[in-house]
Amino acid sequence: MQEQAKSVVQQQANSKDHGRMWLWGFLAFIALSQLYVVRELLAAFALFAIGFVAIALVVTSLYILQKSWELAVARLAVLRHPVINIASVRNLGSVSRENQKAA
User: Fold this and answer.
1) What global pTM score does this model have?
2) DSSP letter string over 13-67?
3) pLDDT of the chain, 103 residues: tens digit per residue
4) CA gap 70, 62 in Å, rounded
5) Rounded to whole angstroms, how far apart are CA atoms 25 and 4?
6) Neighbours of 50 (CB within 10 A)
C-alpha cells in the first residue's frame, strides 16, 4: 500500500514537473518573441530615423545653397550697380551728343 502511494505521489510530481517545464518553455517563447518584436521595431525605427535625417540634410543643404546664391547675387548686384550707372550715364551722354549733332 505504501509502495503504491509512493508511486502515485511520484507520478504526480513527475506530472507537475512536466507541466512546469511546458509553462517555463511557453514563458520563454513569449519573452523571446517579445524581444524579437522589440528588436524589429528598433531596427525599423533606426531605418526611419536615418531616412528622415537624410531628407533633412538634403532640405537643409538646398536651403543653405539657395540663401548663399541669394547673397552672392545681392553682392554682385551691389558691386555692379555703380558700373551700370556709369555706363548708363556715358551712354546717355553719347546719345545726347548724337542728338545735338543731328539737330
Assistant:
1) 0.47
2) HHHHHHHHHHHHHHHHHHHHHHHHHHHHHHHHHHHHHHHHHHHHHHHHHHHHHHH
3) 656 666 666 666 666 677 888 888 888 888 888 888 888 999 999 999 999 999 999 999 999 999 999 999 988 888 876 555 555 555 555 555 555 565 5
4) 12
5) 31
6) 10
**Three-state SS for 1?**
coil
Give 84's Cβ-side CA count (13 Å radius).
6
Please give the Cα distance from 66 to 47 (Å, whole number).
Answer: 29
AA identity, residue 99:
N
All cell numbers assigned to 23: 509553462
Amino acid residing at 57 = L
- What's at 25, amino acid-wise? G
Cell (9 digits) for 28: 520563454
